[in-house]
Specification:
Layout lengths: L12 H18 L8 H23 L7 H12 L4 H22 L1 H44 L9 H10 L10 E7 L2 H8 L1 H21 L2 E7 L2 E6 L4 H18 L8 E7 L8 H17 L5 E4 L7
Helix pairs in contact: 1-2, 2-3, 2-4, 3-5, 4-5, 7-8, 8-9
Length: about 325
């Protein structure tokens, strides 16, 4: 913008426009779905454009002046994004080498000055940038652990009820993926189990079930939540009615085989299938699954009871 008012800058207008065009092109490219996973490489390209622009100003446009904008580049780049420190330092060292070689060939009268200045700013920028990066990463890790603590049940390692209600709220979004069915899981005679074997054994039972559910979630499209006490809830994605029944039966058998003979524990499972419905409130589906698990208990426990809608039960 100030180029027309300067005696030395008007001839730089094409360079400014070219650099701005390259930045906007890279910005557009980075938003493409196929490129999003390579955003880090796009950032490196952006800062390469920045370095090329600064080197052009230093050694081609103003060979009779010491580098200035380039010093800012060496300070700014290490602060601008997060990557492995060694990779960022190598990137800065590469452009330092490019400028140093170019300076000694094209502006020898200031080459040594630029080399010393750029080296000092590069070292300072990388050192402070690396320290800042580690502080930011520690902050992200602390935030991640806090989020996990807020969303995870300590005893079982599963999502807690708070996370469940957050998930239900997210289903209201237009593009949200919704479950095709909900499983309500209840440990049979858990109060008697605690009375007979002790609360420590009860906690161990819950922990073992949590581990088992997590293994199932690694191989199937299931999300498990500790609903409360000895009750668990699982949301299943992309399964039809028969597949849900098969998954529930697999869970029941796995739980039955999980516990030692001297401390047996079984589970009853109620399944609510909703894959072919227009669901407005998934709490109603949870309520249907809850009624189904109580039906399974009335039929003798350690079994699966599946319900498709309010009128159809099996």
């Amino acid at each position: 913008m100030t180029a027309p008012l300067s005696n030395t800058k008007p001839d730089l207008v094409p360079t400014y426009l070219l650099s701005a065009a390259l930045f906007f092109i890279l910005l557009f490219v980075s938003r493409l779905p196929l490129v999003k996973e390579y955003t880090l490489y796009v950032l490196y390209l952006c800062f390469s454009v920045f370095f090329l622009f600064a080197i052009y100003l230093s050694v081609i446009h103003s060979p009779d002046m010491r580098a200035t904008i380039l010093l800012g580049a060496f300070c700014i780049v290490p602060f601008s994004f997060i990557d492995r420190p060694a990779r960022i330092n190598l990137f800065v060292a590469f452009w330092f080498g490019v400028h140093t070689v170019s300076a000694f060939h094209l502006k020898p009268q200031y080459a040594l000055d630029d080399t010393i200045n750029c080296l000092c700013f590069a070292i300072l920028g990388c050192y402070i940038g690396n320290m800042t990066m580690w502080i930011r990463l520690e902050g992200y890790e602390a935030q991640r652990l806090l989020t996990i603590e807020k969303e995870t049940d300590v005893l079982t390692g599963l999502y807690n009820r708070r996370k469940l209600f957050e998930t239900l709220a997210n289903f209201e979004a237009a593009n949200a993926e919704t479950p095709s069915g909900i499983l309500m899981i209840d440990i049979d005679h858990f109060k008697e189990y605690n009375d007979r074997y002790g609360h420590a054994a009860g906690d161990k039972c819950l922990s073992r079930l949590g581990d088992m559910f997590l293994k199932f979630s690694q191989n199937l499209r299931l999300q498990f939540y500790r609903y409360g006490g000895e009750e668990f809830l699982a949301m299943a994605y992309g399964y039809n009615r028969e597949e849900l029944l098969s998954i529930a039966e697999s869970l029941r058998i796995a739980a039955q085989d999980l516990h030692q003979k001297d401390t047996p524990a079984t589970i009853s499972i109620g399944v609510a299938y909703c894959g072919d419905e227009q669901v407005r409130n998934y709490e109603n589906i949870i309520d249907r699954a809850d009624k189904a698990v109580y039906a399974a208990k009335r039929l003798g426990r350690n079994q699966v009871f599946i319900v498709q809608n309010e009128e159809q039960t099996d």
